Amino acid sequence: MTDTAPKPARKPLNPILKQVLDLGPTVFFVVLYFLIKDDVFVIGGTEYSGFIMASVFFIPVLLASMAVLWALTRQISRIQVFTAFMVIFFGALTAWFNDERFFKMKTSIVYGLFAVLLGIGLLRGRSYLQWVMSDALPMAPEGWMILTRRLCLFFAGMAVLNELTWRLLSDSAWVMIESFGFPLLMFGFLFWQFTSLAPYLPDDEAK
Prior knowledge:
- Helices cover 74% and strands 4% of the residues.
- By secondary structure, it is mainly alpha-helical.
- The chain folds into 2 domains: 13-83, no CATH class; 100-207, no CATH class.
- A two-stranded antiparallel ribbon has the order 1-2.
- Strand 1 and strand 2 form a beta hairpin.
- The longest helix is centred in the C-terminal third of the chain and has 28 residues, at 141-168.
- The chain is globular.
- 20% of the residues are buried.
- Mean pLDDT is 87; it is low at 1-9.
- The chain crosses the membrane at residues 20-36, 48-72, 79-97, 109-129, 150-169, 181-201.
- Belongs to the YciB family.
- It is found in: Cell inner membrane.
- Keywords: Cell inner membrane, Cell membrane, Membrane, Transmembrane, Transmembrane helix.
């Protein structure tokens, strides 16, 4: 006889634990970088800077955080998977070529790809952002198109800003800005968007 009893709902993830899993790898990278930024490590006869070693150690910490998140929720967003792939790919290039520029350019390329993908959708009269986020945030199609256009420009601007930041400022300044400044800019931008786009949200969502 087949058991048709409904499975118990999965317990929602504790918000504090979620923040630890989301922000933990970034905080780890920043702390480790400032601890070893002036050190030189010799591995296999090759010298590696503290920046490169911090970038390499960031990868397993990020993967461990995602593994815990998956084990607890059985959910990982497409953006998280894409970001993890880019971190692994450019982290590997950074270590292989012993060149920290690969890790710094990663942020520009991620933002640039987001801008290009959203732009391609706009040229086709579609919002790829709606395809990714519509289940989590119901909104009228007109609102999704407005948000997509604005995010496309925002991501393009962030890519340019990251290039200027790592090329013109010190490593320490870039680490702080990339780790905390850019996320704060993103948060502020999205807060403004969802406030200004409230008329396109259902009444309960707008409230």
